[in-house]
Amino acid sequence: MIFKLNIWRQESPETEGYFEKHEVDASEDSSFLEMLDALNESLILKGAKPVAFDFDCREGICGSCNLVINGTPHGKQRATTSCQQYMRDYKNESELWIEPWRATAFPVIKDLMVDRTAFDRIIQAGGYIPIRTGSACEANTLPIEKHIADAAFDAATCIGCGACVAICPNASASLFVAAKVAHLSTLPQGDMDKKRPAKMLKAMEDEGFGSCSNYRECESVCPKEINVSAITTMNRLLYRSR
């Protein structure tokens, strides 16, 4: 299959970016990143600079493959990261526009790579649960209602990819923060630190992310399908702490 690619190129955070046109012949069984690998091999053979893009596991786990494909973070398939999108998914779209995440808090490093360390600083602001646990106890001695345990586990699946920020008109990180809050603060162990939501939301604001306006675009592109109900949980915990 022949694809016309319009790829964002930007040498550094200080330089102006632009779209560069390429044409590739890709197998329908190739993943999106394998297609970019093949493109880079051809560019290197021609003596041109390869396209910089981020990746790690290529198994839909790490969330580092932060691409916006034809206007949608990660691509057209829901609950799927960029590395797990396949070229057969785009057989009816001969022209593809590939961009990095667009958010002030995610500055472009080069081409399709962005700096997402703002997420790390938000997590650090939340701190750790300040309680001495001692030796491990029998799990059944700490009763947790199943719906609470399930909700905490669902929130814990967040891989911090930033797709929620990339799709949000406000570039809000509320879904990410809510997932990290709901993941621990709804469990008995997290009940000891009631200021965690406030600390993490303050860090989110300081990093330059916007606030939530309930567009709910975030949950539609989340590769782990985290529900916006996590934001409701975060807000409830925030107000209870005041």
From TrEMBL:
EC class name: oxidoreductase
Keywords: 2Fe-2S, 3Fe-4S, 4Fe-4S, Iron, Iron-sulfur, Metal-binding, Oxidoreductase, Tricarboxylic acid cycle
SUPFAM superfamilies cross-referenced by the UniProt entry: 2Fe-2S ferredoxin-like, alpha-helical ferredoxin
Residue span, 4Fe-4S ferredoxin-type domain: 149-178
Record keyword tRNA processing present: no
Keyword Oxidoreductase in annotation: yes
UniProt-listed Enzyme Commission number(s): 1.3.5.1
InterPro entries in UniProt: 2Fe-2S_ferredoxin-like_sf (IPR036010), 2Fe-2S_ferredoxin-type (IPR001041), 2Fe2S_fd_BS (IPR006058), 4Fe4S_Fe-S-bd (IPR017896), 4Fe4S_Fe_S_CS (IPR017900), Beta-grasp_dom_sf (IPR012675), Helical_ferredxn (IPR009051), SDH/FRD_Iron-Sulfur (IPR050573)
GO terms for biological process, alphabetical: respiratory electron transport chain; tricarboxylic acid cycle
Signal sequence bounds: none
Cofactor requirement: [2Fe-2S] cluster; [4Fe-4S] cluster; [3Fe-4S] cluster
Lineage, opening ranks: Bacteria, Pseudomonadati, Pseudomonadota, Gammaproteobacteria, Thiotrichales
Family label: Belongs to the succinate dehydrogenase/fumarate reductase iron-sulfur protein family.
Domain of life from the UniProt record: Bacteria
Family annotation (Pfam families): Fer2_3, Fer4_8
Organism from which the protein derives: Methylophaga thiooxydans
Protein name as annotated: Fumarate reductase iron-sulfur subunit
One Gene Ontology MF term: 2 iron, 2 sulfur cluster binding
Catalytic activity of the protein: a menaquinone + succinate = a menaquinol + fumarate
Ranges for domain 2Fe-2S ferredoxin-type: 3-104
Details of cofactor binding: Binds 1 [2Fe-2S] cluster. Binds 1 [4Fe-4S] cluster.
